[in-house]
Amino acid sequence: MENLLQNLMSTEDLADNFKESKPSYNAQEALDEANRCLYCYDAPCITACPTGINIPSFIKKIASGNLKGSAKTIMEANPVGASCARVCPTEELCEGACVLNDSTKPIMIGDLQRFATDWAIKNEQVLFKKGEKNGKNIAIVGSGPAGLSAARELGRMGYEVTVFEGKKEAGGLDTHGIVPFRLPKDISLWEVEQVENVGVEIRTNVEVGKDIFTDDLVLNYDAVMLAVGMSKVPKLGIEGEDLAGICDAIELVEETKNKNYSAEFAGKRVAVIGAGNTAIDGATTSVRLGADNVQILYRRTEAEMTAYEFEYEFAKQEGVEFRWLTAPKRLIGDNKGYLKQMECVQMELQETGSDGRRRPVEIQGSEFLIDVDIVVKAIGQTRHTHIIDAFGLEHNGGVVKVDPETYLTSNPKVYAAGDAIFGKGIGEAMVVSAAQQGKETAYAIHQQLVESRTECV
Amino acid sequence: MADISINFAGIKSPNPYWLASAPPTNTGYQVQRAFEAGWGGAVWKTLGEPVLNVTSRFGAHSFNGQRVAGFNNIELISDRSIEENLKEIYETKKRFPDRAIIASLMVEPKREKWHEIVKRVQDVGVDGFELNLGCPHGMSERGMGAAVGQHPDLVEKTTLYAKEAAEVPVITKLTPNITDITTTARAAERGGADAISMINTINSLMGVDIDTWNTIPNVNGMGAHGGYCGPAVKPIALNMIGECARQQDINIPISGIGGISTWQDTVEFMLMGSGGVQICTAAMHHGFSIIDDLVEGLENYLDDKGIASISEIIGASVAKYTDWSHLDLNHKKVARINNDICINCNKCHIACEDTAHQCIDMLTDKKGDGYLEVREDECVGCNLCSIVCPVDGAIDMVDLTPTEPPMSWNNRQSALQMLNN
Ligand SMILES: Cc1cc2nc3c(=O)[nH]c(=O)nc-3n(C[C@H](O)[C@H](O)[C@H](O)COP(=O)(O)OP(=O)(O)OC[C@H]3O[C@@H](n4cnc5c(N)ncnc54)[C@H](O)[C@@H]3O)c2cc1C
Ligand SMILES: Cc1cc2nc3c(=O)[nH]c(=O)nc-3n(C[C@H](O)[C@H](O)[C@H](O)COP(=O)(O)O)c2cc1C
Ligand code: SF4
Ligand code: SF4
Ligand code: SF4
Questions:
Q1: Using CB atoms, which residue from B345, B349, B362 is nearest to A38?
Q2: DSSP per-residue string spanning A127-161
Q3: Residue among B64, B349, B391 whose CB faces A41 most closely
Q4: Measuring CA to CA, which residue among B147, B205, B149, B139 is closest to residue B176?
Q5: Which of A216, A230, B17, B324 has the fewest beta carbons closer than 10 A?
């Protein structure tokens, strides 16, 4: 009966499932929470924010009713501050460092940040002005948090900035990759607009390396920044991967961001492979698409899972089941080519491997079958190696090598930041770090171009 | 259980809590509700020639999320007829014979006017009178209230007029809108007052609306000064009570009023010399039911301290209140930070660094964790750090062992004089 109902779920019901799930503070809640902040000196929450937002200052401004000033303080330090208010793992960052953890309970910094930036969005505020033209031009490849942040800072400093974006809309994973019930697309698009307001040109539907040559960029611009992020989910590398019913978690999320709600999931049994935040997003998206049963399969244990605690809790609340120490071996289809079953194998953890984590090893003869209609792959992301090669940059398996201070690659005109330089096996990439790297890259580019100018004189 | 009943200048009350003369005591209905809730007494809303009131009338000082840190009004005395009020006073007293009902009065400073109203009210049976010589707005423009209360000779005369006709105790209520309240307190005593009460409200303008540029509150776009009360005025009231209580030549009981919201406030007022207390704003903010905690908290406090009767605490701190010139210049207090309680907000550091004596260092221990330390030889013991510290117990203000015998400014000056002679 329930299955039948789910099969009959209307598009509106589905759309409701993908609306932002957490309500925002009302004015009184925001005021009460803001008044709780101690306005610390040399506040540890500021240090814990990768973009160094002056948190006591923006909170004080909420308390005083200066919401425009508050939003500006946030967005000044973090050009994607409205998105970050929703997607940052705040328990591990600012809120985790709040001194009130030691006495009562921490200030809900993310919720306050959302309140202030929501105000700016609703009131159509333009927070920053473009700088006076300085005659230099910069090309940025990719319009995710890293690219946008660099573009915003460079635009304010007077550079003529062109951002090339392969997709139809700018914003990177904030626009396409983070589930809409946590981060609606229009929040990210507002941030894009704020960047355009400082004179940045964003050329969407232009894939660098295909629609435009990498060499031309290097030749025609004073500096190039590579902010292409990471790519698709890799293949599982097991038999049956071409069957109907196998999908990529990131592509699945992207569909829902574009308000295309697949009817394929209603009433189905879904298995998600992986245990990072992407897997959680794939699983909760499946639940919201009406799947009957959703389980996450991970070859290690709860302890090694890279998803954040709050994500894990959220998934459990949504009814997602977890199967630890389980790896897929083979996907089995019916005679029409549709996925029907998956052969799995039990794993055990052995001594610590080269990446510092205990290595999972198959237990001989422990294979078993589970019935499944859809498999969502979420075992990390591949790299945009071919574009990196096209620029001729040194890299480490697709991770672009840069100077950690200046973000300069092996090509003295090309910089890289964000997920494109995110090393392997070091936890989860974050929007906020990509934003900070973008800012730092902008300052490094400025530094270099100013220096080269003084040399000429 | 400690005895918290009082006998204030001959007026008996089962507990020291009276509602001050104000909107909570406007009608019999309200006072009876208050008595049902447990209030010990009520000073009826001031009777006199009925007045016309304006709207709006109140304003509040909100601070950091506190809706009523201070409260202001431009209301006048009772706008209901004397007959109506007297009928209700009579009914209320009949229903609650054990509670104190005090009639607050205000008429022009003329002998026959005071004789007339005192006799008329006395006839329905009240336990005492309170002379409202303090209302700072409206009534004062008509030569009453604070216009009387600011002139010691008028305070004395008015008190005398009332006393001539009164058969029950007379309390003279003083205005704080005066440089030295002990002057009018003495005048009331000279006039024969059985007690004094203080404070009435303080001249105030609550605010200006930054959008309309109108005053807060305003009446059709225009404002006039009002009277300030509520938690914010407590320190002012407490000082005025202490100042009166410690004068050798003021020997009548004091009813303490002004900003009392809790049983702790009550204990403070009584330690500083109040024989009972009156409350208005706290009741207006939360309703009559606050009496429950006011009574219970006071009883528990006395029980915990092993004090049998509340009368034992009245004035117990008065001897500790003196002139600055008697304070010990050789006494040394310093701040000490308890790092296991400290939550490292660094507020003490920045307060001392920017606005006190630059003696709290932000340091890092061997593990790389931050901690704070006071350079005690430079600390002047001002208390600022412990005031801004958000965690109880994180900063102790400790007394250092004295190295020299106590010496006050007065001691010092007389010693110097002896040397010079
Ligand atoms: C499913 C999922 C959930 C996540 N959830 C969170 C979260 O909750 N919190 C959090 O902090 N982080 C989260 N992250 C990580 C976060 O989204 C990334 O760290 C961040 O977006 C990286 O920013 P970026 O600018 O480096 O790259 P991206 O955001 O990936 O942007 C890169 C952009 O470059 C474009 N591009 C690529 N190649 C080309 C080309 N050749 N030409 C032109 N354009 C190109 C892409 O289309 C894309 O728009 C999540 C990631 C995923 C995949
Ligand atoms: C609205 C309002 C009206 C008042 N009216 C009178 C009054 O008629 N007669 C009087 O003696 N005091 C009047 N007062 C002063 C109070 O009795 C009391 O002295 C003052 O509010 C301080 O006490 P509190 O801080 O507990 O409010 C009034 C106060 C308020 C707030
Ligand atoms: S640490 Fe907490 S209390 Fe201190 S400024 Fe930051 S948010 Fe406010
Ligand atoms: S008591 Fe005053 S001088 Fe001493 S440490 Fe505290 S703030 Fe500084
Ligand atoms: S103000 Fe109090 S809690 Fe904050 S650092 Fe100083 S001692 Fe610690």
A1: B345
A2: ---PPPP-S-EEEEE--SHHHHHHHHHHHHTT-EE
A3: B349
A4: B149
A5: B324
> What is the DSSP secondary structure assignment for residue A26, as one 8-state letter?
P
Query: Can you tell me the mean pLDDT for B279-300?
Result: 97
Cβ atoms A389, A301 nearer than 8 A = no
For residues A333 and A245, give the distance between their C-alpha atoms in angstroms, rounded to a whole number.
9
Q: Measured from the CB, is residue A55 less than 6 Å from ligand 3? A: yes
**B33 close to B11: Cβ distance less than 8 angstroms:** no
- For residue B344, give its domain range: 324-399
- Topology of domain A137-231+383-456 in CATH is FAD/NAD(P)-binding domain (3.50.50)
- In this predicted structure, the answer to whether residue A454 has a pLDDT above a threshold of 70 is no
pLDDT band at A12 (very low <50, low <70, confident <90, very high): confident
> What distance in Å separates the CA atoms of residue A113 and residue B214, rounded to the nearest whole number?
33
> B346 vs A41: CB contact, 8 Å cut-off?
yes
- Residue A110 alpha carbon to ligand 1 centre in Å: 20
Task: Specify the pLDDT at position A3.
Answer: 46
Domain ranges for chain A, please list them. 35-122, 137-231+383-456, 246-377
The mean predicted confidence, pLDDT, of chain A is 93
Q: Are A307 and A275 in contact (CB under 8 A)?
A: yes
Q: How far is CA B265 from CA A179, A367, B235, in A?
A: 54, 74, 10
ipTM of the modeled complex: 0.83
Q: What is the pLDDT of residues B44-67, one digit of tens each?
A: 999 999 899 999 999 999 988 889
